[in-house]
Amino acid sequence: MVSSLALYSNDITNDINVVPLQISENVNENVFLIIGTCDINYSIKLIKKLLISHVKPIIIQPRTINNVKELINQFHNKIEIISRDFNLSDLTTFGRILVNKVVDKVFINLLPTSPQELDLINTIFNQCIKLRIPINTLNLKEFSTFNLPFNFQDQTNNLQISIDNYNSSPLSLPIPIQLLNERLLRHLTGSIPHDFKKIYQNVANLYDEIYKNNYNVSTETLRQQLLWLNQNVEYSPLSNLKSLTITDLTSRSLIDISTRDDSTALKKIPNSNGTLSLVGTGPGSLSMLTLGAIDAMKSADLIVADKLIPQEILSIVPSDIDIFTAKKFPGNANNAQVEINQIILNNLEQGKHVVRLKQGDPYVFGRGGEEFLKFHKLGYSINVVSGITSPLACTLVSDIPATMRNYSDSILICTGTGQNGTIPDIPEYNAKRTTIFLMCIHRIEDLYKGLNQKGWDDLIDVAIVERASCTDQRITRTKLKYVVQTIKEIGSRPPGLIIMGKVVNVLVKEKDQKYIQFNDDWKYWVKEGCDSASNNFIDENSVKQWLESMTL
After folding, report:
1. Contact present, 399 and 533 (Cβ < 8 Å)
2. Contact (Cβ atoms closer than 8 angstroms) between residue 241 and residue 232
3. CB 418 within 8 A of CB 313
4. How far is CA 239 from CA 133, 301, 339, in A?
5. Of 209, 491, 528, 531, which is least packed with CB atoms within 10 Å of its CB?
6. What is its EC number (predicted)?
7. Is residue 229 exposed (0-12), middle (13-18) or buried (19+ Cβ within 10 Å)?
8. Three-state secondary structure call for residue 329
9. 461: which strand partners?
10. Domain 272-388 has what CATH class?
11. Angstrom distances, CA of residue 356 to CA of 95, 278, 281, 346
């Protein structure tokens, strides 16, 4: 069986930047030594947890005869109790033969207020360090090298989620804190689909199928299938992944549409009064949806969504409304757009209300204008619902003023990807301007070369803003000279954009100034989560509850 552990050094409290490494370990048939039963309730909780993972617990030096009776009553012959004082030799006597009888882990449950037992704790700890035996001491983190996180186990889906406060054992936390952890786990697990195992298994099967059949396909097809599988997993609604097939990962899924000439495919005369709404969804969070966007989504017959639309936004769409996610995967943008246009047309001809959901604002690098012209020429009624523009919202959630006296007197919003995947014209460098590049992170090396050729200052401040306003928002600050290496190291978390200019660090708090002193040894600073000044008032759960109660 597998158990989760959080490993940390015994001086972790001296450095706030040291974060425990949480691992998942197979501990089947391992021997865990429990020394003392000072807190009998803790001992019982611990043993129950260990037995689930098929650990062999050995209890030495039980505190009282009543403790022994209680343990026997609870666990019968599932544990071994040794009613005598602990000896250091026990560490190398009761373990498995496979590991020379050294026990696998040690838990200490002694009374730290007793000088005699505190000395014993110190002795055991030092010996465990020498023998490289992980040790956990109840309520004494300075005598611990690991912790057992608070966890949720879903055996139906083979899923385990853990929370570690790494300040004390979760089994000994005060009741209110335990309840808080349980509530947080319920919050986290509540969004997991009940059939997650089927989703997981289907994705794993598709991965296996791609590689098992690789002798039948070209290298390019293999690369495309794997890339499209990754894109689907990252962007598609989880419910769609359960029915995803290998055909969906090939250009064959688009062949009937992509081989058409888009200019002729849409020259039909409308035979019904369908309506198209081009709707902007803002940067990504529910709290930044406009009322107009919500109204359009709830009144649609079909929603055609960009792949970057977060699951949180799609989750408020009524279950009786169909959602089609655009297949704009790398190398497939043009074919996917033809497919989108045809699907929209087919539904408009049936008199349906089609909502085209777009990240940010429909008319900012989103082909919204092109779609408007196509369907306007066919005589269809088109509504345009603006969304909060992502470039400007991203500056807010990053604590970056887009303009500020003495720092920036203008804003320039650019794309990093031109037509047919080319690099667009790079603007000249202006030290008093805030420049924001969209759709550029995946081709940062080409963008950097272009900026360099135009004489951009290598020391200009840069912020890489990803998943802006969402709970998994990430903001990475660096200098232009380090931006390529930074993105290579941290990877990408779409959607994302890059902000450049003197304003990037002007609002960084005094206590954080040390983190933006970049050099060859400290190239970037990452902040996870949405905790900027502009987001402190947002409670996504409250927003969702309010949206669910709306009758628009």
Report:
1. yes
2. yes
3. no
4. 44, 19, 21
5. 491
6. 2.1.1.107
7. buried
8. coil
9. 479
10. alpha beta
11. 63, 5, 10, 14
Closest Cα partner for 34 from 65, 80, 78, 70? Answer: 80
Residues 6+ apart with CB under 8 A from 333: none
**Residues with catalytic roles:** 306, 328, 439
Helix ranges (H only) for 154-247 are 175-189, 196-212, 219-235, 238-241
Amino acid at 173: L
Q: For position 258, what pLDDT does the model report?
A: 42
Strand partners, 355: 277, 303
Give the C-alpha separation, 361 to 464, whole Å. Answer: 20
- Residue pair 172/139 in contact (Cβ under 8 Å)? The answer is yes
Q: How many CB atoms are closer than 10 A to CB 50?
A: 23
**480 close to 440: Cβ distance less than 8 angstroms:** no
What would the CATH number be for the domain defined by 2-166? Answer: 3.40.50.720
Residue-by-residue DSSP string for 70-135: HHHHHHGGGSEEE-S---GGGGGTSS-GGGTT--SEEEE---TTSHHHHHHHHHHHHHHHHHT--E
Which residues sit opposite 81 in a β-bridge? 59
Amino acid at 538: I
Q: Are strands 159-163 and 150-154 parallel, antiparallel or unpaired?
A: antiparallel
Q: Where are the domains of the chain?
A: 2-166, 196-249, 272-388, 391-535
Please name the CATH architecture into which domain 391-535 falls.
Answer: 2-Layer Sandwich (3.30)
pLDDT value at position 12?
A: 42
What whole-number distance in Å separates Cα of residue 340 and Cα of residue 361? 18
SS3 315: coil
270 contact partners, CB below 8 Å, separation of at least 6: 348, 349, 378, 379, 380
For residue 432, give the DSSP letter: T
Q: At what angle do helices 219-235 and 196-212 cross, to 10 degrees?
A: 170
3 state SS of 228: helix
pLDDT of 13: 43
Side-chain half-sphere CA neighbours of 510 within 13 A: 0
* pLDDT of the residue at 259: 43
CA distance 99 to 276: 69
Spatial separation of the C-alpha atoms in residues 25 and 5, rounded to whole Å: 7
Whole-model pTM over 0.90: no
- pLDDT value, residue 299: 94
Torsion over CA of 487, 491, 495 and 500, rounded to 10 degrees?
-10
CA-based Rg of the chain, rounded to a whole angstrom? 29
| pLDDT of the residue at 34 | 96
CA neighbor of 20 nearest in space, from 170, 242, 204: 170
Q: How many angstroms separate the CA atoms of 82 and 61, rounded?
A: 7
